[in-house]
Amino acid sequence: MTAPTVLIVPGWRNSGPGHWQTLWQQRLPQARRVEQRDWMSPRRQAWVDQLGEAVLQAPGPVVIVAHSLGCIATTHLPPSVSARIQGALLVAPADPERRGILADFAPVPYQKLPYRSVLVASSNDPFCPIRLSGAYARAWGSEFVRLNDAGHINAESGHGEWPLGLALLQSLGAEVPLPRREAVT
Questions:
Q1: Contact, 57 vs 144, CB < 8 A?
Q2: Taking the model in full, what pTM does it have?
Q3: Buried b (16+ CB within 10 A) or exposed e, 71-103
Q4: What pLDDT does residue 178 have?
């Protein structure tokens, strides 16, 4: 059985070089980043279409690794695409209903996702209140992991390689290679 393709789904403005999504993309051989045509002025249909195309082009099952607005784009996928998803790690979801530039992604779907999902949120995320993240998790049927004072769970909040996230990704069936150890002489 082949390992699922890991689709990295960044949020608004993409994920920079120090972001855990970028580090994972470099580390995981089966990882692919979903590139959007416009990272600065996101449009729901364009983002969902791009993500859907990436899911359907994968050779087998897919595990989604979404951050921020990428989480919301993932929940907008149609059932024909969602059927190919084995699981999703949804990290620090966005709140498009309170952020004008992201308003095209509202309203956020509140239906149970047809695959296993883990939603990770922070108690002090400046872009989405923890209560709203909890409501998303309940509506989507996601396992909820609450982190204390972890900001937006990105490079700016000190999350580089983010080992906890890798463990959660592995729990969704993705292959996560062990870090290389230096030889002891």
A1: no
A2: 0.95
A3: bbbbbbbeeebbebbbbbbbbbbbbbeeeeebe
A4: 72
